[in-house]
Amino acid sequence: QLVESGGGLVQPGGPLRLSCAVSGFNFRNYWMSWVRQAPGKGLEWVASINQDGSEKSYADSVRGRFTVSRDNSKQSVDLQVNSLGADDTAVYFCGAGYYIDFWGQGTLVIVSS
Amino acid sequence: DIQMTQSPSFLSASVGDRVTITCRASQDIGNYLAWYQQRPGKVPKVLIYAASTLQSGVPSRFSARGSGTDFTLIISSLQPEDFATYYCQRYYIAPWTFGQGTKVEIK
Questions:
Q1: Residues of A with CB below 8 A from B49's CB?
Q2: Which of A14, A10, A67, A62 has the alpha carbon at shortest distance from A36?
Q3: How far is CA A105 from the centre of its chain?
Q4: Cα nearest neighbour of B92 on chain A
Q5: pLDDT tens-place string over residues A59-102
Q6: Which of A43, A51, A52, B50 lies 20 to 30 Å from A112, alpha-carbon distance?
Q7: Which chain A residues are Cβ-neighbours of B85 within 8 angstroms?
Q8: For residues B105 and B14, is the Cβ–Cβ distance under 8 A?
Q9: Is the minimum CB–CB distance between B42 and chain A shorter than 8 Å?
Q10: A48 reaches B (C-beta below 8 A)
């Protein structure tokens, strides 16, 4: 089970920290990813982190603004999002696996003044 | 950066139809290709990984083939629950890009 939290209404330029709590499988064995979906749009890969946190990858659209991290002792993965713009409004999903085998239900981020 | 292009973006089909969706990568991605189904209002679900391996629990009417740059998802006999949007995704090597999606609607 993956449960995201931290979404909400945020002003343009503001920061937000999204979290994903994992249970039910061996978290330490999985790459973890964040994927977002703007209203009425398709899926967009955002970031991924490897099993021990030593490798991180970002989409060009978020590189330099978003930071992915994980805590294997807490079985959680976070996404720190900064300098938010209207284009960042989306449901943010966390997912587990090279191909995403397990998905959370998503947390909605709305960037608006 | 790599681009994943699906075609068609939209298709209208009837129950029982055979449906084919293609996904083209802008560069060779080997077989690091997954297919997902997303029903309206639901979370995506993986159907296929490694280009052609059916995920456990997925009906056998779903199949896929391809490698390198050209990939295909086939639904052999469309069922009412298959009306959804389908996405391909290159994984394992960044960027883990999704295709733009193919929406399958009822004719």
A1: 98-99
A2: A62
A3: 12
A4: A98
A5: 999 999 999 999 999 999 999 999 999 999 999 999 999 999 99
A6: A43
A7: 42
A8: no
A9: no
A10: yes
Residue spans of chain B under pLDDT 50: none
- Check residue B76 and give its pLDDT: 98
Query: How many residue pairs bridge chain A and chain B with CB atoms within 8 Å of each other?
Result: 58
pLDDT at position B1 is 84
DSSP state, residue B82: G
State the pairing for strand pair B85-90/B45-49. Answer: unpaired
Q: With contacts defined as CB-CB under 8 Å, which chain A residues touch B86?
A: none
A106/B43 Cβ within 8 A:
yes
The contacts of residue B6 (CB under 8 Å, 6+ apart) are: B21, B22, B23, B24, B86, B87, B88, B99, B100, B101, B102
The residues with which B45 forms a beta bridge, in sequence order, are B37
CA distance B74 to B94: 26
- Taking the CA of residue A12 and the nearest CA in chain B, the distance in Å comes to 26
pLDDT value of position A75: 97
CB atoms within 10 A of CB A37: 20
